[in-house]
Each structure stands twice: as structure tokens, then as C-alpha cells.
Design goal:
With 199 residues, this protein is of the alpha+beta class. It folds into 2 domains: 126 residues, no CATH class; 67 residues, OB fold (Dihydrolipoamide Acetyltransferase, E2P) (Beta Barrel). The chain contains 4 helices and 7 strands. A 5-stranded mixed barrel has the order 3-4-5-7-6. Strands 1-2 form a two-stranded antiparallel ribbon. The radius of gyration is 19 Å and the shape is elongated.
Length: 199
């Protein structure tokens, strides 16, 4: 208790955020590894199934083929940024803004690293034992809103060869396919993207 009271108020806040987000991040990484290496039938992505999540599904959230704004990348940003801020404030108690700025930079780097990792996992899924061709004809569910007329940024979850997989998705439909909506896979666009239609 004495140690806690001796901390800067900002350190108190960063400690709580860092612990909470760090725990979630570790669990998500473990679940991704489990989902990649073993059969699974549950949603291991920590997805919040709400329309508000669609804010992270715009084209501006995708850069260099990577989804920069997702639940997982935001968690990585908060976790790493909080711990960096906590540490730097301890060293520079009179330079709070400098500590916050460096923490933001570190958080952005962690977010980008998470996006690279997720992209790599998607490529492994596309080139591994599970063939995307086997997804054609199967029903799935929209994970992140799929824009109309083959707009980019959408994702679906579909069970292929008894494994729950997450793939990028586009649609020829003239309307947006919302989060949670049921869809049918009707084709393969590229190594990580499926063509879907609403059911």
C-alpha cells in the first residue's frame, strides 16, 4: 500500500491499464497459437459483437494489407503504451508529456507488430493444411463488417475442415454485410480473401 501511494497518479492509472490489457493480450496470443495449431470450435479472437466495432472496419483502418485498427491491435497499443509510460514517469517525474509521447510511439509500434503477426497467421492459414477452397459452399458469420461492392476491410469466420477460421472477405452485394450476419462462401478471391453472399 505504501508503494502504491508513493507512485505518481499517472503511474497508478498506467499500472491498472497495463495489468488489465497485458493479461488480455497474453490470453489472446495463447488462444491464437492454440487456434493455429489445434482444432478449435470457439471464437478465440476476443471479438466484441457490436455494431460499434464497425468503426474499425473502414478502409482507413487498413494499411499495407494489414488491419491496423482491430480489437487485438488496440489491446497491444494500450498494454505496451501503459507499461512504457509507467516506467518512464518513474524515471522522469518532471517530464510527463515526454513520457506520454514515447509511450504512444511504443504503443503504435506494438500495434503494428500485432498487425504484422495477424497477417502472417492469415497467410499460414491460407497456405497450410486447411485449403480455402474447402470453404466454398459453407455458411459463416461476419466478424468485421463487409463493405458493399467488393469494398475491402471485411472479415468472416467460417468452419473449414472442423476448424474455425478467420478470413478476409468481400461481397458483390449492393449493401453492407453487418457484424454477426450469416453469409455463404461462393468463391476464393486470393490467398487470404473469400467471396461471400448474404443468406
Amino acid at each position: 500500500m505504501e508503494w502504491w501511494m508513493s507512485l505518481h497518479p499517472l503511474q497508478n492509472v498506467m499500472f491498472i491499464i497495463g495489468c488489465a490489457m497485458g493479461a488480455v493480450l497474453v490470453v489472446q496470443i495463447l488462444m491464437m497459437l492454440i487456434g493455429l495449431g489445434h482444432d478449435t470450435t470457439f471464437d478465440h479472437d476476443g471479438h466484441f459483437d457490436t455494431d460499434s466495432g464497425d468503426a474499425f472496419n473502414s478502409d482507413s483502418a487498413v494499411a499495407f494489407g494489414m488491419r491496423m485498427l482491430s480489437i487485438r491491435s488496440i489491446i497491444a497499443f494500450l498494454s505496451v503504451g501503459a507499461w512504457v509510460c509507467f516506467t518512464l514517469v518513474g524515471y522522469w517525474p518532471n517530464a510527463i508529456w515526454a513520457a506520454i509521447l514515447l509511450a504512444v510511439v511504443a504503443g503504435l509500434a506494438a500495434s503494428a507488430a500485432m498487425a504484422f503477426a495477424l497477417r502472417a497467421i492469415q497467410k499460414l492459414q491460407g497456405s497450410g493444411n486447411v485449403s480455402m477452397e474447402n470453404a466454398v459452399g459453407k455458411n459463416g458469420q461476419v466478424y468485421l463488417r463487409v463493405p458493399a461492392a467488393r469494398g475491402t476491410g471485411g472479415q468472416i469466420q467460417v468452419t473449414v475442415q472442423e476448424r474455425l477460421r478467420e478470413y478476409n472477405a468481400v461481397t458483390d452485394a449492393e449493401r453492407v454485410l453487418k457484424t454477426g450476419e450469416k453469409v455463404r462462401v461462393i468463391g476464393v478471391v486470393d490467398e487470404t480473401t473469400l467471396l461471400v453472399e448474404p443468406i
